[in-house]
From TrEMBL:
It comes from Brevibacterium picturae. The keyword Transmembrane applies. InterPro entries: YdjM-like (IPR007404). Keywords: Hydrolase, Membrane, Transmembrane, Transmembrane helix. The chain crosses the membrane at residues 89-107, 114-131. GO terms for molecular function: hydrolase activity. This is Metal-dependent hydrolase. Pfam families: YdjM (PF04307).
Length: 276
């Protein structure tokens, strides 16, 4: 799945699971208003985190260089790539999700008063990833730094200081990323470092044969290749949902109001018999 699509699916997932209105499930208590917005921003960035395993990946260049030194995002991606075994290995597995969650748990402990310091640090990095994936970094080197610092400050003030909320947001974002990749023909080595190959002849089994390849990757490639028309359609649906959920959370739209509108027969009766 393409980077921008990972990001919007992360936003949609966060609002669907943690939203407080009738268009959301509300199974995660992330608060409302600014607190929910900061949670959604964190999940959006974390939905790109598994791709931070290659120093030449798009998000590795999300923060510009400072003089002759490599950019901070490139350094981070190099480190993650070496630890995870290279591109599309450990970070796209169950153990990868666990590692990111463990890191988030450590950062979640960094608090000062009502300020979520650890969440702000991770928010800064994840925001720079999201801006790059959504092509919002702009042509000026100061822009990704400025926007990432602004979001980090917002997260530090508004993010729930419960130390378990940060790992929850990061774990959710990573899981959404992996599910998205598993829905494409690339699939994911979710059992890494174990890479069990499909048994001989397994590929000939209808439907199931396409869900396990000879490299030890698993999935359900209903979207076809990454960047397919099906993927674009799905992400347009996600985008529409994000707009609906965000406007509903902000009180700009009330889906329940449609249920109170008079039916056509009532309107017709009112026009033909205005005295009732």
């Amino acid at each position: 799945m393409m980077g921008g699509h990972h990001a919007i699916s992360g936003t949609a997932g966060a609002l669907a699971l943690a939203g407080t209105t009738g268009v959301s499930l509300g199974v995660i208590d992330a608060g409302s208003g600014m607190s929910l917005a900061s949670f959604a921003a964190m999940v959006t960035g974390a939905a790109l985190l598994p791709d931070a395993d290659h120093h030449n990946a798009t998000i590795a260049h999300s923060l510009p260089k400072l003089g002759p030194l490599p950019s901070p995002s490139e350094i981070i991606c190099r480190m993650i790539g070496k630890i995870s075994g290279g591109h599309r290995h450990g970070t796209h597995s169950i153990i990868g999700i666990a590692a990111f969650v463990a890191l988030a748990m450590l950062l979640g402990q960094l608090r000062y008063g009502g300020l979520a310091i650890g969440a702000a640090i991770m928010g800064f990095v994840l925001t720079s990833f999201a801006l790059k994936a959504l092509k919002l970094s702009g042509p000026f080197s100061v822009l990704p730094w400025g926007l990432s610092l602004a979001v980090a400050g917002f997260v530090m003030k508004e993010f729930d200081t419960d130390p378990f909320m940060l790992p929850l947001a990061v774990g959710l974002g990573c899981a959404i990323h992996i599910v998205g990749d598993m829905a494409t023909t690339d699939m994911c080595p979710i059992l890494y470092p174990l890479n069990p190959k499909a048994p001989k002849g397994f590929e000939h089994i209808p439907v199931l044969g396409s869900c396990w390849d000879d490299k030890g990757s698993f999935g359900f490639p209903i979207l076809g290749n990454a960047g397919s028309i099906r993927e674009w359609i799905l992400c347009l649906v996600f985008t529409g949902y994000v707009v609906l959920a965000a406007t509903t959370e902000a009180g700009l739209f009330d889906p329940g109001a449609w249920a109170t509108l008079p039916h056509f027969d009532e309107i017709k009766t009112g026009l033909t018999d205005p005295l009732g």
